[in-house]
């Protein structure tokens, strides 16, 4: 409990310090919102060619894209800056995190908390609410609960990827781009119906890496539609379990990484 | 004097060839995005027959050449010029017998040469292996494409140099850089072929902005969109933008240097 107060304090200090440079803060805020809007626009530019994507109409496509955007932006704001770890490892600054009696990961994330990304979160959540209203959701008690937890669960999933991707820097400092393939690549993958992809690439990203559980399967559950690719219906409700497993794996990986940390010695 | 450009070119090439892990990581990421975008566009094309007139194999070339060019033109990585202006280090660059514009240009071309051999060639190979690239009918396309790639790199460089030069006035160029990343992404044809856009918008982008020159031009030449005649026209447009922007760099630099104040300390 005492440590929670410390983190809250650090995060508040971060927010205050970022808000000091008002012009810079606003540029960051609106710039990242524009980039986010562009991602959604890209989905609809492709959508406009045939008036559908992968066998889905406008409502479901919007719901998947919005759920993906909301999940990703939540994770990006909360732990997206974990990739700063590579500077900490390169400079040996990570030592200072190890000296304090707090979790190293939580410190890293709190000290670099990116409040300027809050615009994208709001944007993603508003879009998600609009999508829920227009997509023709089949409202039941289960659907209502899922609708509320889905973006959080997706956020946990992406957050695990951010952490796992950053952890690689303990062994391989120049790995930033590889992590991008799964974080930003994952965001792009989850923005579209899984049916658009094919071959081993679909199996790898959708099932083995679990990206189908971020937006595609929850959206199918909300719309009460079976998976055209033939996955069993109950799997559509399993996103929380998958996210939990992802979070545990990421935490475990982080611990292994910290054990392997070698300081610069200077 | 004529040996200096070559030496700078070689230095740029050697510098980037030492970043082996980063090169590998970049190739991996570009390839993942290549698969992703390729499946998306092919899925749309399967239903519609084509996407804005690009057939299946043309779309494959569009995606994989685009991923390779993103790394070759390197529009998303700002030059360190702005940082050097901010710290005052640019004074050392200005004291040298070669104009920093050319120093930066030749070094960047060296970087691009290395990028062509690694970050362009490997993803293209992956795309060819996994999906099958478009093979041009006319062998003349290859030399034209090569020239087009060089002009794309020069134009991309000139744009980034201009942005760096604004540091003489702005000091902090992050905001401008964000605007640049936004436009150079979507208006160069990275996310979708520009022909998908409404006609007035794509015409506006082609005529009034240098962005299509960074990527879409070379891709259209590679897939023989509109034949070789159209390709040569596109190439001429690229040359015009490259020259215009380099000239703009010279003018802006001359004015910027007059404003330069190096903080002591």
TrEMBL record, chain B:
Record keywords, A-Z: Membrane, Transmembrane, Transmembrane helix
Pfam families registered for this protein in UniProt: ABC2_membrane_6
InterPro entries (alphabetical): ABC-2_transporter-like (IPR010390)
Keyword Heme: no
Membrane-spanning segments: 112-134, 140-163, 175-196, 228-249
PANTHER family, per the entry: INTEGRAL MEMBRANE PROTEIN, SLR1174 PROTEIN-RELATED
The protein, known as: Putative membrane protein (DUF990 family)
Lineage: Bacteria, Bacillati, Actinomycetota, Actinomycetes, Pseudonocardiales
